[in-house]
Each structure stands twice: as C-alpha cells, then as structure tokens.
Amino acid sequence: MPAVVAFNAGNLAPVAQTYRQLHPDRPIYIAGDNDHRREAEGKPNVGREKADEAAVAIGGFVLLPAFAQQDAGSDWNDLVRGQGRDAARQQLMAGIAIAEREQVVRSHVVSRDEGPSPSYASALAHSRDRMQEVELER
Prior knowledge:
The protein has 138 residues and is mainly α. The chain has one domain (9-137). It has helices at residues 12-22, 36-40, 46-58, 76-83, 85-109, 120-137; strands at residues 29-31, 61-63. The protein is globular and about 40 Å long.
C-alpha cells in the first residue's frame, strides 16, 4: 500500500486533505498515534483526536495501535518494537477489515454529493473502539 507520512499531529489534516485531493476515490487509512497513557492521566489523547479529525475531514478511516494499559507505547513503531511485526500486522489488518465493512455501510448511507452524515463521527469512533476490542480479545 502506498504510504504518506505526517511527522506532526498538527500537520496530519493538511497532509490527508492534500492526499484526498490527489486521490478522491481511494480509501485512506490514517495510522495515528494512540497516546493512551495521557488519557489515563486525564490528559487528551492528541494522537487519536488529530487522527479522528483528519479522517472526518477526508472521509477516511483511523487505525490506532492497541496497547495494554501499562504499556508505554503510543505509535505503530512502538508496537513493532514491543510486540513484533506480526502483532502490528495483525492489528493493521484487523483495522482495515473493520474499515472496509464500514466503507460498505457508508456507501449506502452517504452520497458523494452530500458528504459525511452527522452520525459519521460516531460511526468512526465505534469502528476505532471495535478494533481495540478485537485486539484485546487476542
């Protein structure tokens, strides 16, 4: 799969929007950071929030790495280093499978001319949460 990198959460949406303009019909998966430890401290999970914002803006899908609560990891590279390539691949493939199902549902609910429905953000959050549940079940 082609990959485009935004090395800063603040630049994620502009990069995603540029890529969407270049490829309007292609599914876009945003492999964001999961700052889950910050959430545990009552702070915002900036990686997830920025990935969600970018995905909503372009009609894309968020893929976040899942970590045990005590794991200090937050990004996909941390997942590879801590759990290995196979674990990262499994999480990515599970997330893509969920996103593909969501895309089928979305195609029945959203027309190209109307843009995302108001319930899109909640569907996006549900898909993200479901991906994390799938990984925690393993």
